[in-house]
Amino acid sequence: MIIEDERDEEAPITDYREAPATKVKILHDQLARFEEFLARHSQIKNKSTHFALCYALIDHLWKVYIILIHSSICVI
Questions:
Q1: Which helix (H) or strand (E) holds 70?
Q2: How far apart are CA 63 and CA 55, in angstroms?
Q3: Mean pLDDT by 10 residues, the chain (76 residues)
């Protein structure tokens, strides 16, 4: 089944709203912030740091899981 659009594609657009003016905050120390970002990014991309963070996250999740299991056993 084919459904055709019933509106006139050549009709002028009459319903529009003005966008509010944006307030942009200019950072005066952009270069230093960008260098910090690059340093953090390269540290995250470091393979040994990546795996250390992964193992720390897994360890943390297991600790939270054990606490939740222990608290649910004590409550029941």
A1: helix 47-75
A2: 12
A3: 65 72 70 85 82 94 90 62
